[in-house]
Amino acid sequence: MRTLLNVLWLIFSGIWMALGYAVAGLVCFLLVVTIPWGIACFRIAAYALWPFGYRVTERAGAGAPSLIGNVVWLIVAGVWIAIGHLTAALAFFVTILGIPFGIAHLKMIPVSLMPLGRRIVPTDTPYAPARW
Question: Where is the Inner membrane component domain (predicted)?
């Protein structure tokens, strides 16, 4: 079932989202100072291609630099990307068959708001306790 949902997602939303995140990542790499956000953009682009069967977790040991970077990202791009995901989710929720895709868009909002200090893991990976 995951494979079918991922293929349909790829056709209806995934390709466009992944391209958007990849372009943002390239721009971040060109600006050199924003390379950490570029890496996060490429990580999210891969997640946007094939989201079913994966989840976002916090990375243990991500400290103050990730927090500061996330605040900058939130102000510059995160809010706008989250609004885009919310709009797409609402559009998918209009149809019954689109509900899983709307949920997938809602699942991407937290990582699009604060991408640094996160990792994307398969859903069958056991939860690891956070190390402080």
Answer: 4-53, 68-118
Gap between the Cα atoms of 90 and 117, Å rounded: 28
Nearest partner of 45 among 17, 66, 70, judged by Cα: 17
Where are any strands of DSSP class E within 16-116?
54-58
Burial category of 76 from C-beta neighbours within 10 Å (exposed 0-12, middle 13-18, buried 19 and up):
exposed
Coil, strand or helix at 57? strand
With tokens 């200090």, the residue in question is: 117
Q: What is the mean pLDDT of the chain?
A: 86
Q: Which of 96, 89, 106 is nearest to 55 (CA)?
A: 106
Residue 89 CB partners (closer than 8 Å, separation 6+): 101, 102, 103, 105, 106
| Pick from 121, 104, 107: nearest CA to 43 | 121
Q: How far apart are CA 103 and CA 72, in angstroms?
A: 26
pLDDT beyond 70 at 131: no
